[in-house]
Amino acid sequence: MATAAEIKQRTEFESDRRARLSVPAAAGGVLFLLSGIILNAALKELPTVGIVQGLEPALHGEASPAISPRAAEVKFIDHHAFNLIAGNVLTALAILALTLTLLFIQDSTRFRRPQTWPLGRPLVLVGGIGYALLNLIHEVTLAIEAHKFASGTDFSSKAVERALLTSGSLGIALTLLGLIAALALTVGMIAVMVGSLRAGLLPRWLSMFGILAALLFLPLFGSSLVTTLIPTLWLAATGFLLWERWPSGDPPAWAAGEARPWPSQSGRAKGQDGKDGPPSGLAQRFMGARNGGEPAADLAPPPTPVPGGSRRKRRKRG
Predict the structure, then answer these.
(1) Is the pLDDT of residue 47 over 80?
(2) What phi and psi, each to the nearest 5 degrees, are found at residue 106?
């Protein structure tokens, strides 16, 4: 259990770190938005091959056509390689800013709730760095292979699969590692959001929004402006909170140095508000030591009202 001096030292450290981290967090949100705009603009006119177009060579008796229907897709990627790489560079920088923000929130949560799941930090660290680097490596490798395809003479289906990294040991390895990194980042971010909610460091809606943003990193949801906008808004809002400029005031758990979980709907109905309730435990001792006096005594609970205003008199049976 932390002492009053340790709580004071920790809160001062967090206040300084929050001021420094608020700018990268907000900048990461802007980079997320820019990367989404660049990537969606670059891929807007990407040629797609439908089922009928894909089966057309086979319908004409060509099992292995000399020119694959997807050859135009590879040439398009080669032509827009610079924009695709630039967009992924911005995404990697935004992911690194997200990773730093999550690590700080996780450490602050663990100080207030030592029972918080400890694997959240390594999952965020490995998943965040792996997600950023592997996406960038995949895009650079794809651009190199697409350029080889466009400047070569083999436009068959096998050559297209090699260029798009859908076959071969390199493509399989990058896809598998990218999936593992995305899964680690998702699980780690969800763990951090749940812990911060229980510690009271983030507002309830912001923690839930962070869980939704974490799920969108999975390849299942693809890439679009919507999947980019949600992490953007979460990072921007978190950067504003770290700057200690939250409209409704800073969550009390930051200054208290201990967990102040947000009350549930039933808790609010009973008046158990984590923000306005009296301090308890370490916070009482810390406040008493800071004011040079004794910690405040526990407030006695109000008397429980007796159900019913008066007792009914029994009627005598005549």
Answers:
(1) yes
(2) -65, -45
How sure is the predictor about 12, in pLDDT bands with cuts at 50, 70 and 90? very high
**DSSP structure string for 165-196:** TSSHHHHHHHHHHHHHHHHHHHHHHHHHHHHH
Predicted confidence (pLDDT) per residue in 265-281, tens digit: 555 545 444 443 444 44
Region at 86 (left for phi over 0; alpha for psi -120 to 50; beta for the rest): alpha
DSSP string, the chain: ---HHHHHHHHHHHHHHHHHHHHHHHHHHHHHHHHHHHHHHHTTT-----HHHHHHHHHTT-SS-SB-TTHHHHHHHHHTHHHHHHHHHHHHHHHHHHHHHHHHHHHHHHHH-TTS-TTHHHHHHHHHHHHHHHHHHHHHHHHHHHHHHHTSS-BSHHHHHHHTTSSHHHHHHHHHHHHHHHHHHHHHHHHHHHHHHHHTSS-HHHHHHHHHHHHTTSGGG---HHHHHHHHHHHHHHHHHHTT--TT---HHHHHSS--PPP-HHHHHTT--TTTSPP-THHHHHHHHHTTSPPPPPPPPPPPPPSSSSPPPPPPP-
